[in-house]
Amino acid sequence: MKKFIKWAVIALVAAIFVGTFVFLYQKSRPKEKVYEISTVQLKDLEKSTIVTGKIEPRDEVNIKPQISGIIAELYKEAGQMVRKDEVIAKVKVIPDMNSLNSAENRVRLAEITLAQAETDFQRMEKLYQERVVSAEDYEKSQVALKQAKSEMTNSRDALNIVREGISLSNAKMSTTLVRSTVDGLILDIPVKVGNSVILSNSFNDGTTIATVADMSNLIFRGNIDETEVGRIIEGMPVTITVGAVQNLEMNARLEYISPKGRETNGANQFEIKAALSVPDTVTLRSGYGANAEIVLDRVTKAITVPESALEFSGDSTFVYVLTDSVPKQQFQRRAVQTGLSNGIDIEVKSGVRVGEKVRGILKEEEK
Which residue, 97, 178, 307, 322, is the most exposed by fewest CB within 10 angstroms? Predict the structure, then answer.
């Protein structure tokens, strides 16, 4: 019995030893390299760039007051259509004290001058009837009276403009009424009733009462990197996608490329504009974010392989063509000449034929 146990222990130890040896041997063997295989195909390739930007109206006009004052009334709201010369707001004038004082003094002086002219004319008229003075002197007194009356009217008109912003002689063209200068949609009214506004002059831009734009004439405005601006020209077709509108692609045509770049976040960028063709069933808003895809180059029926199949060595480019797959993969290294790439596939001008299989990404599996 003891002898049997002894041999059993020896057999168990031997089995453990052999098993350990086999396990370590299997682990020490190198893994067989297995590669993904791709087929050389004919494809149409396009190289494009994506430019981010916004949808904007071509013409956006800021409506500003002709006088300084306070907003008394607003007749329109953002989102409403407005016609040219239609009133948007009314401004209540806050007169400048110096201008008001000068205008009042002018009226007082005009009143004195008119009173004196009337007195002189009455005296001259009586003397003329008695044939004491000549007709020429009488006519001069008439002219002086007319001039005094005209000055009286003008001075009162000027005083009313300073006080109220309204001309007595032409109330329809009142400067207190802020009118649209174009037909279009009101995009924004940044003021409220009671806000102070100032007119535009050489010292400031003035207060914007409203922003009006023609939303039937839209453009895409964006910036393209200097590495790609040299490959685009005015007139190229552009495809526009708008993030706020799902499943919408619009055609556009590149119409402007800035001749001067601007540095943005360390990169030199050039502004571009493209004219949009918006379908009648689509409504776009000013400021929508959009992407413009511009095709920089195109090749039809190109012999292509995946870019991952290429190997670069110095100035040369190679692919590995599959020659056998049993019992293991075997490849032939070939030099190739490449062309256009779209980032996934690349054109091969020489070195391979359509239908051949080339080595791709490495996979590892245990034998």
Answer: 97
- Asked if the structure places residue 18 within a domain, the reply is no
CA distance 190 to 195: 10
pTM: 0.64
How far is the C-alpha of 29 from the C-alpha of 44, rounded, in Å?
A: 45
| Claim to verify: residue 148 and residue 229 sit in the same structural domain | no
Boundaries of domain holding 307: 32-45+300-365
What single-letter DSSP state applies at residue 173? G
Distance CA 316, CA 204 (A): 63
Cα angle 164, 169, 170; round to 5: 80
Q: Are residues 186 and 321 in the same domain?
A: no
39 and 68 part of one domain: no
Considering the domain architecture, whether residues 208 and 106 belong to the same structural domain is answered as yes
| Type of residue numbered 348 | V
| Residue 2 forms part of a structural domain | no
Q: Are 322 and 359 in contact (CB under 8 A)?
A: yes
Q: In this structure, what CATH number is given to the domain that contains residue 361?
A: 2.40.420.20
The count of domains in the chain is: 3
Name the residue among 186, 163, 213 with its Cα closest to residue 61: 213
Q: In what order do the strands lie in the sheet with 69-74?
A: 177-179, 87-93, 69-74, 196-197
Whether residue 285 is contained in a domain is answered as: yes
d(CA 278, CA 251): 8
Could you list the pLDDT tens digit for every one of the 367 residues in the chain?
A: 566 666 666 666 666 766 665 555 555 555 667 888 899 999 999 888 999 999 999 999 999 998 888 898 999 999 999 999 999 998 887 766 777 688 778 888 988 888 898 888 888 888 888 887 888 888 888 888 889 888 888 888 777 766 766 665 655 555 778 899 999 999 999 999 999 998 887 778 889 999 999 998 999 999 999 988 988 999 999 999 998 888 888 999 999 999 999 988 888 999 999 999 888 888 899 999 999 999 988 899 999 999 989 999 888 999 999 988 888 888 899 999 999 988 889 999 999 999 999 988 877 554 3
Question: What is the rounded CA–CA span in Å between residue 44 and residue 300?
Answer: 4
Q: Look-up: residue for tokens 């290294």?
A: 333
